[in-house]
Every structure is written in structure tokens, then in C-alpha cells.
Specification:
Structural class: mainly alpha
Order of helices and strands: HHHHH
Radius of gyration: 15 Å
Distance between the termini: 41 Å
Strand content: under 5%
Number of domains: 2
Helix content: 40-55%
Length: 117
């Protein structure tokens, strides 16, 4: 993937997040960005989009999901604040960030408004 393509994909990602609002499920985000890029004439796959969304483990940043590596800042899922006892039950170290999809997987149930501060 060329740097120009990567830049265009990043721009499209921000357009999709702005258009859809703050909460976009990861699976939907990949397909929306892929479709939007194809509409704009880019020949890319979801794999190319995933390379833009996910950083390699050696270059993790503060807002990257601990489980899937997606940049939660880029998809608008930051910051959220869970009740302390719930957060420490899911992330014993208390450090890091989880996207909402991975948080629900770790919890084993959907999130409710009572889960947040």
C-alpha cells in the first residue's frame, strides 16, 4: 500500500466516524471504510483497511485496544469510564484501553448504562 493510499484511507476513516457518530462497531467500520474507499476509486480490501486501523504490537499507543489493537481514538470510543470494580474485574492491572466490542467480549454480556460512571 502506498503512502498516498494510506493517507486517503485515514481521511476516509475520519469521514466515516464523523458521519456515523461516536459508536461504530469494528466489523461495521471495516466494511464501511472499505466500501467508501471503493466508491472513491481506491482498489483495496478489508485487509488493507485493517492495516490502517491496527498498529503492530511493538508500536502500541495509549489508546490502542489491548485485545484487538484497534486505535480507539480513531474510531471515537474514548474516553469512557466504567465503574472501578467492573474495570478491575475485566482488566486486573487497571492499565490500558479496550474498545467497547472487546470489553463486552471480556464481560461476556452487553454493556448497560449502569456499567458506566
Amino acid at each position: 500500500m502506498t503512502p498516498t493510499t494510506r493517507t486517503r484511507l485515514t481521511d476516509i476513516l475520519h469521514k466515516v466516524v464523523t458521519w456515523r457518530g461516536a459508536r461504530v462497531y469494528r466489523a461495521h467500520l471495516l466494511s464501511l471504510v472499505s466500501q467508501w474507499a471503493q466508491w472513491e476509486g481506491l482498489r483495496i480490501s478489508e485487509r488493507d483497511v485493517r492495516q490502517v486501523l491496527v498498529r503492530p504490537p511493538s508500536r502500541r499507543r495509549r489508546w490502542d485496544c489491548l485485545d484487538c489493537g484497534i486505535d480507539t481514538f480513531a474510531i471515537g470510543e474514548y474516553p469512557y469510564s466504567l465503574r472501578d470494580e467492573l474495570w478491575y474485574a475485566v482488566v486486573p492491572s487497571g492499565r490500558g484501553m479496550l474498545c467497547l466490542d472487546c470489553l463486552e467480549v471480556r464481560l461476556g454480556r452487553p454493556l448497560t448504562p449502569k456499567d458506566f460512571n
